[in-house]
């Protein structure tokens, strides 16, 4: 892309950013606030929510009137984050937040959390799979932590999704699963795609997409990392381990959407994923170009979409559908 093309792209992004800012300022109409019609209050779980975008997602959902379960690996930080949301909420807001320790990379932790959620709340209505890690910043592209990145970003999301689906409460408005992903995980992205054309085609073909295909891709990547034979010609060129993890998140979102698509009315579960953009958080070394509040917006919007819109198995950015 030449200089003029980059400038035009930057101008389009800024224009859409201004449009979304205006949309965020519009209040939900009473008939759109499906969560207000539930009793007891709708429950939303946000993983990795003690800081950054997860904190913002939890804060915004709480301000909209859902009961938010804010989770984090570090119990003290989670407790502090929940207290901060309550302390900073406007006096007229009906804010309800609690914290819970959760490590999505630990199967026993996820199992214990699911048991607690069932016993305490009888289930949940919204799951925001936000917990994730990335150890590369700026021009870095190390794969030294690839196993931890994959375990947290992909298997952690998968673990939580599988554990929470049976806990999604029946409702005429449907339950929601929102997976935080990235444009870096596009199978056929212009600048950061996987080099294996056959694998790309299979990942994008619903008839070929399977859990086995996704897991075999992950296994092959990690084996090459251990052997030192991985190549940026074969795998995404930027933040390779993070990009592969988000590629898997995107594919799994589409796969699960298929399995959930035939659920009867009253038991619908809508699952989607979104790219928050380059957000100014600790994960990006504070080098992003939008705030955590802006980054969380599309995820919160997806969690609160009126059920008649029925968005399912899609990928979004700036409140617009984008391609996988």
Automatic annotation (TrEMBL):
Top enzyme class: oxidoreductase
Stretches of the chain forming a coiled coil according to its record: none
EC number: 1.1.1.-
Gene Ontology molecular function, alphabetical: oxidoreductase activity
CDD domains per record: carb_red_PTCR-like_SDR_c
Keyword field contains NADP: yes
Tagged with keyword NADP: yes
Protein family membership: Belongs to the short-chain dehydrogenases/reductases (SDR) family.
Protein name: Short-chain dehydrogenase/reductase
